[in-house]
Amino acid sequence: MADSPATPPSDPRRTGAPSHPAPRFRRLVRCENCFKQFDAGDLAVGERFRCLCGALLAVPRSEAQEAPVVRCASCGAPRAAGAVNCTFCEAPFVLGESERNTLCPVCASRLGDRQRFCHNCGTRIAPEAVAGGRSEYSCPSCTPERRLSSRRIPDATAGLGMLECGSCSGIWLGHPTFEALQERARREVAPEPLARAGRPGAKRPKALQKVTYRPCPVCRKLMVRRAFAGSSGVVLDVCGSHGLWFDATELEATLAWIRAGGLSRAEERLAEERKEAARRAAIAKQEIREVEAEPPAEARWFELLGDLAEMVFEAVGRKR
Ligand SMILES: [Zn+2]
Ligand SMILES: [Zn+2]
Ligand SMILES: [Zn+2]
Ligand SMILES: [Zn+2]
Ligand SMILES: [Zn+2]
C-alpha cells in the first residue's frame, strides 16, 4: 500500500469550483469483528470511531485505485475470460456510473455509488451507517422515521461511541461500550461515598408509566426490561445481542450511582447473600445428616420390645 495521502483524483472536496452540487465521497470502512461497513467519508485518515459491536475502527490510509472489472458489480460473480455479460445475472461487465465516489472497504477500488459488489474483489457493498453521523437505526422510543445519530462520548479514553436521539435524547450503547463506561465510573468512585446515594429512577414515577416494550435499533426485536444491578432503581431496555437503551437522563444517573459506590455496594450485598445462602445450605445438610444418624422408628420399637421381654423373663425368673 502506498504511503501517499488517500485522496482520489476526483475527490469533490479537493477539486476546484464545482458547478453542480458535488457528490459526497464515501470511504467505506469494514469492521473485521462483525463485518459491518461504515461510510467514513466525513472522517480524516487515521481518525477512529466505534462500530456498533463495540470494536474500535480507524479510517485506513489506503490509496484509491482504478481496478479492472473482474467481478460482476451487480452480483459479485467472477468474470469468465472475455465475457461481456455476467453468466449469473446477465449484467454487463462495464461500469454504469461515470462518477465513482465510493471506495471499496477491502481493496480501495473506486466504485460507483449504486454498485452492489466491488468489481475487483467481489466484496458486497452495504454500509450500515455513516461513521460519526446519522445512522440508519431508528429510535426505540420515537417513531421509526426518527434516526439515531452517532456521537463520540466526551472524555472517553478509547474513543467510545454512542447513538443518540435528537428528539427524545435517549441513548443507545453497545454492551462493550457500557461495560467500559461502568469500569470508568467505578474508578471514579468517591473515597467518601455519599451516605444515601439518590436512586436514579427516583424522580421518574416509572410504576405509573405504561410499560412498553421497545424494539432494538439494530435487530428490531423487542428488548427485555431489566433492573440494573437490582437495587439501582433503573430499569433498562436490553437487547442481549446488541446493547442497551437509556431514556434521556438515565445513563448519567446510572453512572452517578456507580460513582457513588452503588455498584460496589450492590455487589457486596450479592456476595453477602450468596454467603448466607451457602451457610443455610450447609446447616440444612447438617440437619439431614443428623436425622440420618438417628436410628429409624421401628428399630427403636424393637429395642423397647426387647427390654420388655427381658423384664418379663426377669420377673418370671424371680417368681421361681
Ligand atoms: Zn463491528
Ligand atoms: Zn452478476
Ligand atoms: Zn474491492
Ligand atoms: Zn427518540
Ligand atoms: Zn438487537
Q: How far apart lie the N and C ends?
A: 121 Å
- Can you list the strand order of the major beta sheet? 8-9-10-11-14-13-12
Integer average pLDDT = 79
**Global outline:** elongated
Order of helices and strands: EEEEEEEEEEEHEEEHHH
Structural class: alpha+beta
The proportion of residues in beta strands is 15-25%
Number of helices: 4
Bound molecules: zinc ion
Strand elements, count? 14
Q: Percent range for helical residues?
A: 10-25%
Count of the separate structural domains: 3
List the uncertain runs. Answer: 1-19, 193-206
**What Rg do the Cα atoms give?**
34 Å
Largest sheet: 7 strands, antiparallel
Write a concise synopsis of the structure shown.
The chain is an alpha+beta fold. Helices cover 24% and strands 17% of the residues.
Structure, described:
This protein has 4 helices and 14 strands. By secondary structure, the protein is of the alpha+beta class. 24% of the residues lie in helices and 17% in strands. The longest helix has 32 residues, at 262-293. Strand 9 (147-152) and strand 10 form a beta hairpin. It folds into 3 domains: 1-130, no CATH class; 134-260, no CATH class; 277-319, no CATH class. Residues 216, 218-219, 221, 239, 241-242 line the site of one zinc ion. The site of one zinc ion has 7 residues, from loops. Residues 267-294 form a coiled coil.
